[in-house]
């Protein structure tokens, strides 16, 4: 039988594994499912249609599964789905999805969400990610695997944060954040390859060096002042029609040149594909926000867009 402390409130319709621990002051709602090995320390609130896997740890005042803060939400039976071995520190919040956004907010496995982090509606978080204190993730954001986001970072809606990237503290992410790189600052700038992070995840030196060489070619510091070196500036120049002397946007040209220079490693090709997808289609990219036209009719196609599932 679950170990439920005196003072906790658990709806009898909730489904709990036999070894779940629920501390004093917690509330678990009627549509909640909690898997084996989970522990709610104290004063944790789990609401809505929330499904939780195994071995998750919830610190005091975490609130999971509340309704989304989206004015388009119409009270549908949307969900929050959480995988295994995640840690939710104090005051972490995660909302369910919306009808227009696919209906599910999803968290993978082996992630840590530190004090005050927030996951809005329809967010997708992969595996092995770290979101530091007060990181704010807006709706429809996609966070790929092995991402490290420092404290006080804000990620705007529809942005994709690429795998193995590192986002520096107090930064704004208003465009897709490329994988494998260090990204930061108020305007959002590429600062180089995430060498230390890649090393911790087992990347060998040749693989890291290949990414460094590619990054040097795609984002040449010597050719542009720092303001234009930012990914935001590069993306904006494409969408605004800015062209180089050959009639092509500089980043598109460099991507084409990189692919034509011979075989690329798996990770270099992934970086190129990520950038091309963001530029050409804008799937899950911030650029789509300027084109959004919500209505009470069928969901716009880009809400069901591509990207990693």
Short description:
With 309 residues, the chain is of the alpha/beta class.
What does this entry look like structurally?
The strands form three sheets. The chain has an eleven-stranded mixed sheet with strand order 1-4-7-10-13-16-19-22-25-27-28. The protein has a nine-stranded parallel sheet with strand order 2-5-8-11-14-17-20-23-26, with no helix packed on it. The chain contains six helices and 28 strands. With 309 residues, it is α/β, with parallel strands linked by helices.
Question: How are the secondary structure elements laid out?
Answer:
Layout: E1 3-4, E2 9-10, E3 15-16, E4 21-22, E5 27-28, E6 33-34, E7 39-40, E8 45-46, E9 49-52, E10 57-58, E11 63-66, E12 79-82, E13 87-88, E14 93-95, E15 104-107, E16 112-113, E17 118-119, E18 124-125, E19 130-131, E20 136-137, E21 142-143, E22 148-149, E23 154-155, E24 160-161, E25 166-167, E26 172-173, E27 181-184, E28 189-193, H1 195-200, H2 205-218, H3 226-229, H4 231-239, H5 250-260, H6 266-280
Parallel strand pairs: 1-4, 2-5, 3-6, 4-7, 5-8, 6-9, 7-10, 8-11, 9-12, 10-13, 11-14, 12-15, 13-16, 14-17, 15-18, 16-19, 17-20, 18-21, 19-22, 20-23, 21-24, 22-25, 23-26, 25-27
Antiparallel strand pairs: 27-28
Helix pairs in contact: 5-6
Q: What fraction strand?
A: 15-25%
Annotation field: number of helices: 6
Write down the Rg.
Answer: 21 Å
Mean pLDDT: 87
Shape: elongated
Number of strands: 28
Strand order of the largest sheet: 1-4-7-10-13-16-19-22-25-27-28
User: Percent range for helical residues?
Assistant: 10-25%
The main sheet comes to: 11 strands, mixed
End-to-end gap: 36 Å
